[in-house]
Amino acid sequence: MVRQTPFNWLKPKNDFVLKLILGSDNDQSKELLLAFLNDFLYVPALQSFTSVEILNPIINKQSIYDKGSILDIKAKVPGYGYINIEMQLTNHNNMHKRSLYYASKLIGNQLFVSDEYTKVERVVAINLLDFPFFSSTPYHSCFRLMEERLHEPFPDLLQLHFTEMPKFIRQDQAGKIPVNDRKAKWIRFFTNEDDTRWFEMAKQDPVMEKMVESLRVASLDPEARELYESRVKALKDLNSIRGEARREGIKEGLEKGLKEGKREASRELAKKMLRKGFEVSDIMEMTELTETEIEKLMVEINNH
Questions:
Q1: Who has the most CB within 10 Å: 41, 43, 158, 164?
Q2: pLDDT score recorded for residue 216
Q3: Which neighbouring-strand residues pair with 128?
């Protein structure tokens, strides 16, 4: 039972907290992850997932401080496939490409050279977004492959789920979320910033009680709190760098033209990321520069 002792709770809308609660290598974390997946994917009760393997349970402390690192959850459900869960707080206007890229890697990494294609299993990407991304009204979107004229679905090997949490909050406040929406309690948990509501949430059902208790334990753990605060700072620093580069790009664009300004902003952002130790692959994704261009910038930096 959750105990009501006053303290400052960690905010669950954070990739470190998400991974700590749902992606750790312990029985309770696996139990909660199974409950999350069963609800989020609307698995029928008689077909509920009962087993899950967390493929990346270890949180590398260096990745906490790495502004470009991804603290996602990779899991495998026997008989169903591979699942990737990611929390994204900032819109970089590339979430659709990012999700497709990492889902494709999960597909490609399933086979060794001598393996047959029959071994390829379903891949599901679940993206929890703290920003609106699509123009449509529903807060949740799921994309699958299908034939364009007949709308005949391709075999269910790839699903890209996007949950736009701000849309959910607005619809929830307006009373527009159906009572049978199985995702709702999870999104309310992740988006809650009112510490007085945690014990109320814990009374909903045994799963939410365990979620709140896991958050309480993490909030009282000095090491977990230190890592959480370091992660928050790292993400703020990254957004600050991007914002500065964007402002520089706008200024440069007024003087040289928008196209040149955007290019220069990408170059300046890449330089700053190189100086701070980002991986080349992360810089390529964030700036859309080529590997050759980034290597030239590395030489340029080293020569100064």
A1: 164
A2: 95
A3: 87, 163
What φ, ψ does residue 121 adopt, rounded to 5°? Answer: -110, 165
20-37 pLDDT per residue, tens? 999 999 999 999 999 999
> Over the chain, what is the mean pLDDT?
87
- The 10s digit of each residue's pLDDT in 48-107 is 999 999 999 877 666 565 545 567 999 999 999 999 999 998 888 889 999 999 999 999
Q: Which amino acid is at 277?
A: G
Residue 272: half-sphere exposure toward Cβ, Cα within 13 Å? 21
Both tokens of residue 53?
Answer: 């393997």
Kindly state the tokens that stand for 171.
Answer: 């619809």
Are residues 44 and 96 in contact, defined by beta-carbon separation less than 8 angstroms?
A: no
Q: What is the CA radius of gyration of the chain?
A: 21
Location of structure tokens 């910038």: 297
Phi-psi region of 128 (alpha: psi -120 to 50; beta: other; left: phi over 0): beta
Contact 177, 171 (CB under 8 A): yes
CA angle 43, 49, 54 (to 5 degrees): 125
Q: What is the pLDDT of residues 211-252, one digit of tens each?
A: 999 999 999 999 988 888 887 777 666 666 555 555 565 455
* Dist. CA 152–CA 145, nearest whole Å: 9
H helix intervals, the chain? 15-22, 27-40, 61-65, 95-108, 165-173, 184-191, 198-202, 206-220, 222-256, 258-275, 280-287, 291-302
CA distance 163 to 130: 8
172: closest CA among 161, 160, 185? 185
Place of tokens 């906490």: 64
- Length of the chain counted residue by residue: 304
